[in-house]
Amino acid sequence: MDLDPYGTAAPFIDGAVQAVTDGGLLCVTCTDLSVMAGGNYPEKCYSNYGGMPVKAEYSHEGALRLVLHTIATSAARYGKCITPLLSLSIDFYIRVFVKVNHSPQETKHTASRTGSVYVCTYCQTHAQQPFGRAIEHEGKGKQGVRYDFKTHSGPPIPQDGCEHCGNNSLLAGPMWLGKLHDQEFISRVLEDVETQSSQYGTFARMKGMLTLAKDELPNAMFYFTPAKITSMFHAQCPRFDQYASAIANAGYNVSRSHASAGSIKTDAPRALIFDVIREFVKENPVRRDKMSEGSPALKLLDKPMQHDISFDLHPSIKGMISRKELVRYQMNPTENWGPASRARPEKKMASAAAAAATIENDAERALAEAATTVLNPAAALGLALEETDAPKNEEGLDVQELMDAEDVVEIDGSSRPKRKSDAEAEGADREGKKAKTLAEIDEEAMMNGM
Ligand SMILES: [Zn+2]
Predict the structure, then answer these.
(1) Taking the model in full, what pTM does it have?
(2) 296 C-alpha to center of ligand 1: Å?
(3) Same domain, 175 and 228
(4) How many independent structural domains does the chain possess?
(5) How far apart are the CA of 162 and the centre of ligand 1, in A?
(6) Do residue 12 and residue 131 come from a single domain?
(7) Which H or E run contains 47?
(8) Last-in-domain residue among 132, 156, 181
């Protein structure tokens, strides 16, 4: 079952989880990333997805987790559980593929896979607060593994501010805390896509994104970019391979995230991620004199290091950066590419008025020319009107074109209908038609010798 409406799929999710067959695939697209991943509509995000958005550089992964949370909790009401197979944040929308199974037993794990997230307002350190705990026990005889389900303790962060920078944290979620992808499923999709590569115009991008998703660390939440972390320290930025190697050399796993170019996903603690910069600034000093006393940047810098950092290239990172043929992150084909903000009526009116004014000027100019060259004024007026008959053909021009009244007048040759909102341009056109009719009458009268 595929939900792909324009905007949010939230109103259709409850019906979809009921309708999908046992073991069936549910695909959901939501194009309201500004609600799910922006800071401007938290109330709308909660209404649609039952959770608050993440306000950090990893907000797009937060959006994926919010939608999965909506699907998981909707399904749980009907004794169904979900298994995310592939969860993608692409350009300006998200698309998730989940398997839905009827399993009241498995549904019991929903609470321990759901939780809130605290996000520091300065250093973006995140801490998860799951709602439930599933405690595993070895069963006796044929019982296999059994679980006890408990509530969870909290909160997971200190009461007196972030442990790294001292700032406050914002609450996000509840959201899905489980896995985003099923690696085995992605491998099968990749194999299938590769056998039909000539069928897909966007094969290179599909392969790049599927490979990124497949290689993502399954149990790590969120990601970071070296550029963002170094900006918090007011420091210079290490290269991607240096940063990733430093984490791998400390014994932690590293991958990229498909959701952001240049991002790193890791199971390393935030303290290690910050220690990498503390080590880096030893060779690349920062301007401490530019930082104010007690600023979070200074607090981050002055925190004692807890790890030994080595920037030597790690073998696993070599593999990550060497595949140059892979299209990992598609860049926008042109500047300002993507959905623009909605056209505002007053701008349209302004452009229409400008177009109307240009028409009047053209008509006046033609009349003046006709008068000086002793042409038939009526014929000149007819000519002027013919030249400026364009406004009724301007339907469908984009906002940029509408902003430029000169272009509006020049575009000609199509028979598209007039814009309803172009009241003034329409008015000018009507006047023109009336004048043209008079000109024709005048011409006819001359031809008839009257
Ligand atoms: Zn912090």
Answers:
(1) 0.74
(2) 8
(3) no
(4) 3
(5) 5
(6) yes
(7) helix 42-49
(8) 181
Task: Tell me how far the alpha carbon of residue 75 lies from the centroid of ligand 1, in angstroms.
Answer: 35
Within this chain, do residues 80 and 173 fall inside the same structural domain, yes or no?
A: yes
Same domain, residue pair 11 and 151: yes
Tell how far the Cα of 255 is from the centroid of ligand 1, in angstroms: 23
DSSP assignment of 188-233 equals: HHHHHHHHTGGG-TTHHHHHHHHHHHHHS-TT----B-HHHHHHHH
Q: How far is the CA of 127 from the centre of ligand 1 (A)?
A: 11
Distance 164 CA to ligand 1 centre (A): 5
Inter-residue long-range contacts of 250-256, CB under 8 Å, 24+ positions, other chains counted: 250/307, 250/308, 250/309, 250/310, 253/217, 253/220, 254/217, 254/316, 254/317, 254/320, 255/215, 255/216, 255/217, 255/220, 255/320, 256/212, 256/215, 256/216, 256/223, 256/320, 256/328
Residue 159 Cα to ligand 1 midpoint, Å, equals 13
pLDDT score for 266: 97
Alpha carbon of 232 to ligand 1 centroid (Å)? 10
Q: Which domain holds residue 177?
A: 1-181
Identify whether 203 is part of a domain.
no
Residues 232-283 pLDDT 10s: 999 999 999 999 999 999 999 999 999 999 999 999 999 999 999 999 999 9
Q: Tokens standing for 380?
A: 């000149």
Phi and psi angles of residue 294, each rounded to the nearest 5 degrees, phi first: 80, 5
What is the SS3 assignment for 349? helix
